[in-house]
Amino acid sequence: MAGPAGAVELRRISKSFGSVQAVKSVDLTLDAGSFTTLLGPSGCGKTTILRMVAGLETPSDGEILVNGNRINEVPIHKRNIGLVFQNYALFPHKSVFDNVAFGLKYRDVPKEESRRRVAQALELVRLPGMESRLPSQLSGGQQQRIALARAVVIQPDVLLLDEPLSALDANLREEMRVELKKIQRELNITTLFVTHDQEEALAMSDTVVVMSEGESEQQGPPEEVYNRPASAFVADFLGYSNLLEARVLASNGATTALELTDGVNVNADSANGHFGHAQVKLVIRAEKIGIASEWDGSNGDSILDGTVADVDYLGVTARYFVKVGDLRLQVIGTIDEHPFREGEAVKLRIRPRDCVVLGSA
Amino acid sequence: MGNAGIRAFTTLVYLFMFAPIAVVVLLSFNSAQFGSFPIEGFSLKWFEELFNNAAIVRAFQTSLWLAIVTAIVSTTFGILASIALVRYDFPGKSWINTLLVAPVLIPETVLGVGLLLFMLWLSQPRSLPVLMLGHILISLPYVVLVVQARLVGIRRVYEEAALSLGANRIQTFFAITFPLLMPAIFAGLLFAFTISFDNITATIFWRPPGTETVPTQIYGMLRNSISPEINALGTVMIVITVGIPLLAGALARYFARAKP
Question: Is ipTM > 0.85 here?
Answer without folding.
Answer: no
